[in-house]
Amino acid sequence: MTTPSGRVAIYPGSFDPLTSGHVDIIERGARIFDSIIVAILANVEKTPLFSEQERVEIIKDVFQHQPNVKVETFNGLLVDYAQQKQAHVLVRGLRAVSDFEYEFQMALMNRHLAPGLETVFMMPAEQYTYISSRLIKEVFTLGGEISGLVPPLVEQKLQAKQKAKKR
Ligand code: PNS
């Protein structure tokens, strides 16, 4: 089914921060769908490292030359947001078997809530299969090398946060 603006997909997540794995999935999605909305979950209880606004700005900057990649935040149920956007597809990345159970549960719950909304799983390039936002934050905080695992802008922002904290 297409909408007036074409086939719209939503790629939801926390993106705290955006990783090279996320970038890979967004690029793949942007080649398949007319547009892909990167939808950042707002107001989660856990305190994020990057604010909603910072995450929006980072993703907008990284995809500034790709007009069919849009960035938004959403609250509440993902299926309600998808309906509001007239999107019929959710994109999620699958890195390893360990992702499967959580993703399977979410996909089936979302299908229960909105039968017309399809979840499409995409695999990132192999070199990104071990990357997660949580590990990036941990490795960076402990002084490990993360270049190539996140876009350069994310690395700069992490360094800036670290400097500000030391002051
Ligand atoms: O990057 P994440 O943290 O794995 O993304 C999880 C996300 C944002 C996709 C999920 O928590 C979500 O959809 N939250 C919105 C609330 C909702 O719809 N919950 C029911 C999901 S079955």
How would you characterize the overall build of this protein?
With 167 residues, the chain is of the alpha/beta class. The protein has a single domain (8-166), classed as Rossmann fold (3-Layer(aba) Sandwich), CATH 3.40.50. The chain is 43% helix and 17% strand. The protein has six helices and five strands; from the N terminus they run βαβαβαβαβαα. The protein has helices at residues 20-32, 52-62, 78-84, 97-113, 133-141, 152-166, and strands at 8-13, 35-41, 69-74, 89-93, 118-122. Strands 3-2-1-4-5 form a five-stranded parallel beta sheet, with helices on both faces. β2 (35-41), α2 and β3 form a beta-alpha-beta unit. The longest helix is centred in the middle third of the chain and has 17 residues, at 97-113. It is globular and about 50 Å long. Bound molecules: 4'-phosphopantetheine. 4'-phosphopantetheine (PNS) binds at residues 12-14, 41, 77-78, 106, 109-110.
Helix share bin: 40-55%
Which word captures the global form?
Answer: globular
CATH homologous superfamily (4th level) name: HUPs
- Determine and state the CATH class: Alpha Beta
Distance between the termini: 54 Å
Largest sheet: 5 strands, parallel
Strand content: 15-25%
Unreliable spans are none
- CATH topology, which one? Rossmann fold
Rg to the nearest angstrom? 16 Å
Topology as a string of helices (H) and strands (E): EHEHEHEHEHH
The ligands found in this model are: 4'-phosphopantetheine
Oligomer: single chain
Calculate the mean pLDDT score and round it.
95
